[in-house]
Structure formats: structure tokens, C-alpha cells
Design brief:
The N and C termini lie far apart (105 Å). Helix content is 61%, strand content 0%. It is built from 20 helices and no strands. The radius of gyration is 28 Å and the shape is elongated. With 438 residues, the chain is mainly alpha-helical.
Length: 438
């Protein structure tokens, strides 16, 4: 019976990590539904970006107040969870604060004391975040795409952090041996008096209860990430590494368009044939994107990485002038549709069955796409290098080249370019007539 808690802990650990791995595999599967794109170039620059932006939070501090608060939570939550390693060892082998014996009073006391200070800072910061989200009138938190689950999700994470940090402090405060030793109880020594008058048995029960809820809460939090915008805690690193390094405003050539141009230049050529003799002809891909499987895997990674912070939307000139476009919504819609496709594949044993829906029209309207000025403000503002503009442009390409559904003004301009070699409705011979006017 004495080993029963250790067995239960091991089973909980295996279940928690196992479910997390299963979700990560599903996440990887969904991202790989996207088309291939090569992002293996410029490795030193990519690594530098990841260290500077994802680890160093360099773009967060462009808005100093919220950026500083985010760094406090980020650093505090990550460093405090180093203690999880000790909890895991204690849980598996039935020990208690095993690192104290290895590290000694000085180092162990410094670490736990630092953890306690960070826990209080995280608690204060999380309360400020909650007030900003729920009691302030910050426009980017009040957009229509933030109604319902997105708002609840943001608050759920804050509640998780409040509970986990509080449990950590109470666990230390009710650990009689820890408090008696006076090693590292920087903050918990001021919490301990709240439990004066409790019997040793009651204090032990409270300490053990907090210990169990703390570690089980961390496992629950770990698996909640997949369903939450806070997946960016993990994905910000690969997302910044694989981000587009080309100059902003430089668009890629579509292979499908290149193949069509080659065919126009040499009608006898077969731009879609494989190089192997006798191999079947490949099916030409569509022009642009109408659904998530038409996007590339980096764009799908972007969608899962979106933090829903709204910095992109708050900087978007189209959104600021009252138009429908919200770059944040573009990313949220892409992720929601990708999740829907993933559930479809799961329900049909690994095969996608046409559900009569797509990203275009069912999630994102043409009105939103055409409102974009392609100014790159959203790309510049994103703290984790997400590129909503690339998705917008690929969907615009589909509208123009597959559906001929461009706005009348654009169709007129393109017709003029085709007929007159310029966007204006003048014959080439008449272009300089204005110079002869008196």
C-alpha cells in the first residue's frame, strides 16, 4: 500500500504525457496537410531570429507595458516549472525535496526563494492581464472575433496560472520541515501564519493536497495547450525559425502559373510531366488557395501559432477605417478550418471526405480579402513573425485566376493592361496627348 501513491503518480504521468504526444502527432499531421515549401536556407539567420524573437521576446517590448508584463509571466512560469523535475522524482520514488540533499541549503534555498518571488510577480501580472481583458476598454480585446470561446480561453489560461502559482506558495507554506529549516521560504514564510493553529496532520494534508493538485494541474495545462491559443508557448520557436526571410512585399511565383507560361512559350512542351519516362502526368494544381490544403505548411503553422493578441488588427489600416478585415480573424479562421479538416480525417479513418465547405466563403469572405491594402503592417507587428498577408494574397490569387471574381475596378485595370499595356484606358498612341494641351 505504501507504493500506491507512487504507482498512481506514474500512471498519471504516463497518461498526461501520452495524451500530449498524441495531440502533438495530430498537430503535426494537420500542419503537414499544407503544401511543401523550402525553409531550410539561411540557417544562422533563422536561428538568430528564433533566439531574438521567440526566446528574447524582442518584438513584444515594442509595446513596453504589455511587453514587460508578458516577459514577467513568460520568465516566471518557465523558471518556476523547473521545480516540476523535482516533483516528478519525488512522485516516482516517494522522496521529499530530493534536490535539497544534492544542492545543499545555499543553492536550493536560492532557487526556491527565487521561484517564490517569481510566483508572486506572476500572480500580480496575471491579475493585471485579467483586468485588461475584462475591465478595460482596449479595442483589440473587444473585437467580434473575440466573443465566446476566444475570450473564455484567454481567461482560462489566467485562471490556470493563478491556481498553479497559489498552490505552489501554499504547498511551501504548509510544509512544516521546509518552513522550520528556513531555506528558500522568501515569500511562503509570510503565508505560513495563515495556517497557525492547524495541527501537524492538517498541515501535512494541505501540503500533500496542494502538491498533488499542482502537478496534476500542470499535466492538465500541458494538454490544454493543444486546444488553446497558448499553443504559441511551444510553436513560437519553430514559427520564428521558419518565418519568411524575404523582403516584405516580395511575393512568390506560383509553380502553376510558371508551368502555364512555359506551355504558352512552347506549346509542344509538357510542363506537368514527370521526368521519368512512362510516368503518369501530374495533375496541375489550382491557382491560389481556396481551402487550408492549398496553403503551405508554414502558413498552417502560423495559424496554430497565433496568440490572438490582436496587435496585427490594431495596426491594420483597413480595420482602423471600419472595413471587415481583421488579420487576427484570418489566422483564427484558418486554424478553425484546419481543425475541422483534421476532425474529418479522424472520423473517416485517415481520409478526408468532402464536407462541402472550404476556407473561402465559409470562413473568410471576399470582402475581407479585398479590404487588405497589402501594407504588411500586420506582419511587422506580430510578436512571433506570423504572416497573415501571405494567406490573404493566396486567396486573392484564387479569386482572380480561378473564379475571375476580382472587383470591377481591378478587372478594368487588368483589361487595360492587357489591351493598352498600361492601367489607363488610353491607346498607346494617345498617352502623350496631355502634353499637347494648351
Amino acid at each position: 500500500m505504501q507504493y500506491l501513491p507512487n504507482l498512481f503518480f506514474a500512471l498519471a504521468l504516463i497518461a498526461g504525457i501520452g495524451f500530449f504526444v498524441m495531440n502533438i502527432r495530430k498537430l503535426s499531421r494537420n500542419i503537414n496537410l499544407g503544401k511543401d515549401v523550402n525553409r531550410t536556407d539561411k540557417k544562422p539567420e533563422r536561428l538568430k531570429n528564433m533566439i531574438k524573437i521567440a526566446l528574447g521576446q524582442s518584438k513584444m517590448v515594442k509595446r513596453p507595458f504589455s511587453g514587460f508584463l508578458h516577459i514577467v509571466v513568460y520568465v516566471g512560469f518557465i523558471i518556476i516549472n523547473i521545480e516540476v523535475l523535482e516533483i516528478i522524482i519525488d512522485g516516482l520514488f516517494g522522496t521529499h525535496r530530493i534536490f535539497l540533499g544534492f544542492l545543499g541549503d545555499g543553492i536550493y534555498g536560492f532557487l526556491i526563494g527565487t521561484f517564490e518571488i517569481l510566483a508572486v510577480l506572476v500572480l500580480i501580472t496575471v491579475v493585471i492581464f485579467w483586468l485588461r481583458r475584462n475591465a478595460s476598454t482596449i479595442k483589440r480585446f473587444l473585437s467580434k472575433e473575440m466573443v465566446g470561446w476566444p475570450k473564455k480561453d484567454g481567461n482560462m489560461i489566467l485562471y490556470f496560472e493563478i491556481i498553479l502559482m497559489s498552490l505552489f506558495l501554499v504547498m511551501n507554506a504548509t510544509d512544516t520541515a521546509f518552513q522550520t529549516a528556513g531555506v528558500g521560504n522568501t515569500i511562503s514564510q509570510f503565508v505560513a501564519p495563515l495556517f497557525d493553529g492547524f495541527s501537524p496532520e492538517a498541515l501535512h494534508t494541505i501540503e500533500r493536497t496542494c502538491w498533488w493538485i499542482h502537478i496534476l494541474g500542470i499535466l492538465v495545462f500541458l494538454n490544454y495547450l493543444y486546444y488553446s491559443k497558448h499553443l504559441h508557448i511551444l510553436l513560437a520557436f519553430p514559427n520564428t525559425y521558419f518565418a519568411n526571410l524575404n523582403p516584405k512585399g516580395q511575393f512568390t511565383n506560383l509553380d502553376s502559373v510558371t508551368a502555364e507560361v512555359k506551355l504558352m512559350m512552347d506549346p509542344d512542351a509538357d510542363p506537368y510531366a514527370t521526368p521519368d519516362e512512362g510516368a503518369e502526368e501530374t495533375i496541375p494544381e489550382k491557382f491560389g488557395a481556396s481551402d487550408v490544403t492549398d496553403l503551405n505548411w508554414v502558413q498552417l503553422l502560423n495559424a496554430y501559432t497565433c496568440t490572438e493578441c490582436g496587435r496585427c488588427t490594431s495596426s491594420c489600416p483597413a480595420n482602423l477605417t471600419g472595413k471587415e478585415l481583421s488579420p487576427r480573424k484570418i489566422m483564427m479562421d484558418t486554424r478553425d478550418r484546419l481543425e475541422e479538416v483534421g476532425r474529418n480525417i479522424d472520423a473517416n479513418k485517415g481520409v478526408f471526405v468532402d464536407d462541402g465547405k472550404q476556407l473561402l466563403n465559409d470562413y473568410i469572405s471576399p470582402e475581407e480579402l479585398w479590404a487588405c491594402t497589402s501594407c504588411n503592417a500586420c506582419v511587422e507587428e506580430c510578436p512571433v513573425n506570423i504572416d497573415p498577408l501571405s494567406i490573404i494574397m493566396d486567396m486573392r490569387r484564387y479569386l482572380v485566376m480561378e473564379e475571375s471574381a476580382a472587383p470591377q475596378e481591378l478587372n478594368m485595370m487588368m483589361t487595360n493592361i492587357e489591351n493598352n499595356g498600361a492601367p489607363w484606358q488610353y491607346n498607346q498612341q494617345d498617352r502623350l496627348n496631355w502634353a499637347n494641351e494648351e
